[in-house]
Amino acid sequence: MKVLVISDSEKLGQDVSLTLQVRWRDVILVWAAQGKKGIDLIEAEQPDIAIVDLGSFDIKGLDTLSEIRSLFDLPIIALTSGSDAMDKVRALEMGADGWIGKPFMPIELLAEVNAMLRRCSILKFQHNHPLPFVSDKLTINCATHEVYVSGKSVRLTPTEYNILCHLLKNHAKVVTHRSLLDNIWGPRYTKDTGSLKEYIYRLRSKLEDDPENPRMLVTERGIGYKFVGADLTE
Fold this sequence. Notes:
- The chain is of the alpha/beta class and 234 residues long.
- The chain is built from eight helices and twelve strands.
- It folds into two domains: 118 residues, Response regulator (Rossmann fold), CATH 3.40.50; 98 residues, Winged helix-like DNA-binding domain superfamily/Winged helix DNA-binding domain (Arc Repressor Mutant, subunit A), CATH 1.10.10.10.
- Helix 6 crosses helix 8.
């Protein structure tokens, strides 16, 4: 496994490497002190995961995060300052797939990276067992992970795509918050409904004609969400 750390703290990169070696002995760390260098390394090194330190002054963390997301489908973990809810929301809005507050315990990092790898394995399974979905204006090519709304291509992050596919597999059935969080992020996140709400909002913004009055991704208040689409085929 190859991990890219973008941070102006070389020590943080070393700490990440030592922590991950406890679980993955063959881990390879790629470190960049600046955002532009980190983006160049993604192309050159093809890392499996990127960890972006949003608190690093030199890398302009949020800008770097946004640029990585616009260019690559690489899973991204954001390191935020403490547990500030707004830091977390901003990280998700800019394209992060997960986050960890600093300072963090080694077990937190291990759990987050493991959850990322699990989500990636789900994507690979879907790639090897493609099922095309068509429903009204929405079309999903599961072999290429391409999503179209009214014939126009829509770019989804890996996490957004996983959430959509999980709801599609349970078409017209309510999927509880807990089930979604456990299947997409893992048991550590089963109470983190705020993150889930943010991702559903982002999906609606990309897929719905009127995100404020959704017709595909419907909320079951206090319970969860369901995908509703007429004439679903697969």
